[in-house]
Amino acid sequence: MGRAHEVRAASIAKTQAFKTKLYSRFGKEIYIAAKSGEPDPEMNLTLRRKIQEAKSNQIPADVIKRAIEKAKGGEIENYQEARYEGLGPHNSTFIIDCLTDNTMRSMTDVRTALTKTNGYKMVNAGGVSYNYESVGLFELEYEDEDTMLMTLLEADIDVYSVEVEDGEMTIKTSFSDFGKAQDAIEELIPDVEFDTCETAMIPNEYVTFTEKEDIDSFNKLMNMLNEAEDVNKIYHNVIIEE
After folding, report:
1. pTM of the predicted model, to two decimals?
2. Which of 61, 132, 194, 216 could be disulfide-bonded to 201 (CB atoms 3.0-4.6 Å)?
3. Maximum Cα–Cα distance for the chain, whole Å?
4. Residue 59: CB partners within 8 Å, gap ≥ 6?
């Protein structure tokens, strides 16, 4: 898929490696979006966008439907967002976003994963996130950079970059313009199918792991975090080069 995708895959590790965890993540997020307003995507913009993001991650329709029906049923589950930050070897950095109904459990799970991996530790809020940029991130099959850029600028969207590689376009916008950008892209390409459609944290600089010991420790940490019940997304600045 090109260097842009390799770098992104290296820098944004999410729970997609485990389908059941990914389904759980989107089930929670769709439930929350549905509870925040009408449980109807035609009337609830937040829900509609979350469904689009779920579809771009190949979430089955029945998982989406169950989450919406659960919200309609009046069952109440109180989820909170919690963010933890970590530091590892060679100035590697980590941001771990959780969606949880028990912040003590989520903090314990994240801290345990970090401290049980050689060379890693949890740091205070803001300790590494200052070196990341919050963006709206879109990936789709489209090659006309000029038309896309003009469309976004005319919609008064703060565009960070529009790049095309191997027929795949990657668009980065300001975090606050994510929703407007999605609307503008969907208006330009009514039948668009996003490969990625989400807000994300992008590191300003990367570190490369080449030693087996470092790579093994990194993989151990990722596995432990991905297995943690509440971990929703993991961002890091590590590129693996074996």
Report:
1. 0.79
2. 132
3. 52
4. 22, 23, 26
Rounded CA-CA distance 59/67 in Å is: 12
For residue 111, give every residue at least 6 positions away whose Cβ sits within 8 Å of its Cβ, in sequence order, or none: 84, 122
120-171 residue pLDDT tens: 999 999 999 999 999 999 999 999 999 999 999 999 999 999 999 999 999 9
* Number of neighbouring beta carbons within 10 Å of residue 99: 19
- Token pair for 187: 């208006």
**Given the DSSP bridges, would you call strands 80-87 and 132-141 parallel, antiparallel or unpaired?**
unpaired
Q: How far is CA 222 from CA 9, 170, 196, 238, in A?
A: 13, 25, 21, 11
As a whole number of angstroms, the distance between CA 95 and CA 57 comes to 21
Instruction: Give the separation between CA 205 and CA 131, rounded to whole angstroms.
Output: 8
CA 182 – CA 175 distance, rounded (Å): 12
- Helix and strand element counts for the chain (H, E): 8, 11
